[in-house]
């Protein structure tokens, strides 16, 4: 955004963004944007694992996206900020979760110019360390990008204190392994707790999550059901629910913030103590009119 970059959103309609068929949606958005503006698409950005769906892209889908980027000579940026926050989903049998496969683990040979592939990672999510402000770019075959980053790094140095803390954490292999495993277990348990609650209470959510610490839930459907409505006739269903949630002192990120194509969807963050989650879920139901 600082570079005044323009974002071209992709509408998937009823196609899952995780299916290889979704690549056609990317191509349609690319061609439409370039035909309607004087701008050229320069990069495709994936959030992998996905936020807010908490799912990982299958290998074949990533490969098809790589081929698309090669076809149009655009950069593929895989934001893998939740790469170490993956866990076993044992509660959603109807949709088998896909294990994370980093873009780094897929050979670009015969698929894409490796100079077009880049990976982002940082300490903020996997280590709960937003304040450290450390991120990395992994780009193994683009000398021009390396030179550009070196030229601008003078103005974006990591602070000495952040450098010291991060180095001490990452160099302690035993602690890091133990921490990651414990973090994964707790994320799994929190997700199971919330998902089981939603199932018992008849609240629709997107299954198959196995990464990150959130649940994508359809509050709009329950909100309308409680009012014996099948269609919403107001100006903004999501904002109406937001207002009711605020009245209960609950903040949830609305689908409007994520470019959701359907109203009424919200992200519940599960990384809280059980007693907090229990109270929050109770208040959410009060806001829905249960």
TrEMBL record:
<dbReference type="InterPro" id="IPR004839">
    <property type="entry name" value="Aminotransferase_I/II_large"/>
</dbReference>
<dbReference type="GO" id="GO:0006520">
    <property type="term" value="P:amino acid metabolic process"/>
</dbReference>
<keyword id="KW-0663">Pyridoxal phosphate</keyword>
<dbReference type="InterPro" id="IPR015424">
    <property type="entry name" value="PyrdxlP-dep_Trfase"/>
</dbReference>
<comment type="similarity">
    <text>Belongs to the class-I pyridoxal-phosphate-dependent aminotransferase family.</text>
</comment>
<dbReference type="GO" id="GO:0030170">
    <property type="term" value="F:pyridoxal phosphate binding"/>
</dbReference>
<dbReference type="InterPro" id="IPR050478">
    <property type="entry name" value="Ethylene_sulfur-biosynth"/>
</dbReference>
<dbReference type="InterPro" id="IPR004838">
    <property type="entry name" value="NHTrfase_class1_PyrdxlP-BS"/>
</dbReference>
<protein>
    <submittedName>
        <fullName>ACC synthase</fullName>
    </submittedName>
</protein>
<dbReference type="GO" id="GO:0008483">
    <property type="term" value="F:transaminase activity"/>
</dbReference>
<dbReference type="InterPro" id="IPR015422">
    <property type="entry name" value="PyrdxlP-dep_Trfase_small"/>
</dbReference>
<feature type="domain" description="Aminotransferase class I/classII large">
    <location>
        <begin position="25"/>
        <end position="284"/>
    </location>
</feature>
<dbReference type="Pfam" id="PF00155">
    <property type="entry name" value="Aminotran_1_2"/>
</dbReference>
<dbReference type="InterPro" id="IPR015421">
    <property type="entry name" value="PyrdxlP-dep_Trfase_major"/>
</dbReference>
